[in-house]
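Minutes, methods subgroup
Present: GH (chair), OT, SY

1. OT presented the first of two proteins processed in the latest run. Sequence and structure tokens recorded below as shown on screen.
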Amino acid sequence: MECTSCGARQIGEPMAKPDVLLPKLGGSFAAVSCVLLLAFTFLAVWLFGNDMKVGRVLLVWALGDGTKFTQELLQINPKLPYYKIFSYDAYRQMFFLGFIWIPLALLGVWLGRRALQRAKTAPEEYGGFRLARVSTVASSLLLVMFSAGVVLQIPDALERSRLKQAAATRAAMYALHAEALEKYHREYGSYPQELSDVSRVNAEAVPNTDYWENNFTYQPTGVIASRGSAISFSNYKLISAGPDGKFDTEDDISMEDGIILQDGQTKIEKVPASTKSFKQ
């Protein structure tokens, strides 16, 4: 027999099909590999992340404090035996790496379900039914665990973000006080009547907006002298409207004479009309 397209000729009888066909296990092994990858990477990050604190604590617990190695660990950090926030570290790692682990867990579920379906419909061709079922369940549990870890950490992440934004705003207010307002006060014996007046003592740009890019509200207070058209102020208030961009609300951040005021002390007081007439 000769092939009409390429001219190849048959030189022997075709091989007979084997009596026993081994089922394919690639899909099941792929699903299990995904589960193992997730489990081992999570444990590795949990144990060796955060300066290996969890791993060092477990070593001290397992080996005791009588070995030279654990004694060196305790010299570096004597508080290791009292470290008990393992769940916080786990949730923290889930939150920061959830964008990797959750898709991998979804992939594991998909691979396991596909291998399970193939083993059901064609058992003579595809094997690993139990392996696929176990990997599907394990991937589903990991998916739920990682998703819950991300969801539970969202409020804490938002709170950390809020504190970071407020800290950046306070830093800008301190910089404005030290680099402009205090310089003006030392130069002229008075705080400026307008925030723009600080350009007289500091030509460089100083922060006049908060983290949310809203302008600070500045108001001089404590009129101590008035001579002709000049007016002097002994105090001032600097106020940020906070994340909502509205004054006289609970999230306002207020500074008075270089000191950040506590909550509830941020109400804006308008400059009296008598002092407005002395603007330069």
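2. SY then presented the second protein from the same run.
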Amino acid sequence: MTAGDNRYLAGSRVAAAAQTVAATVMLLLCAFDHHTFGAQANDFAFRFRVGDCLPERLDTFSGTFTKDLGGYPSQLATTRLALTNAQMTDIFRTIEEIRFFEYPASFVGIAAGAAEIVKTIPSPTYRLEVRNAGVVHTVTWEDAYKPTTAEADRLRNLFEMIIGFIHAHEDYKRLPPVLVGCE
């Protein structure tokens, strides 16, 4: 082997190493761009609101739940409500699985190219603000239109899970009933 051959081999190794580093950096940037955490951070918490005219709100940052009872003037009932660690882990895993941090802030969820769209009134409206590892993302959605997308179905399933956890909680069951219905 000549000195020129050695320089060529060394240059090839440097180029290969540079390509490997560049590919690794791109993968890491894509992972951070998509906010895929993989692990539930110590600061994981969320605020969830559901309802069309008498909303319910769970704030896991403060450990409170508020229910609009209606009436005139409108009355609210608030209680301390904390989900279990297992429930919080289930919610976090689902947030990761559906790639919640990739949903747009204002979600529509209507199937593209649908020949006919049906609107349901009243319809549930949702707002979910999630913090994990210092990153905060909020999604709002009026679930009024059919047909929906697979992304909409996954988001609805997450919301139904959260609602189920809330409504099964003893502190929720002790709250007074709604005073009036919605029109």
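Chair's summary of item 2: Confidence is low (pLDDT under 50) at residues 20-35.
Next meeting: continue with the remaining queue.
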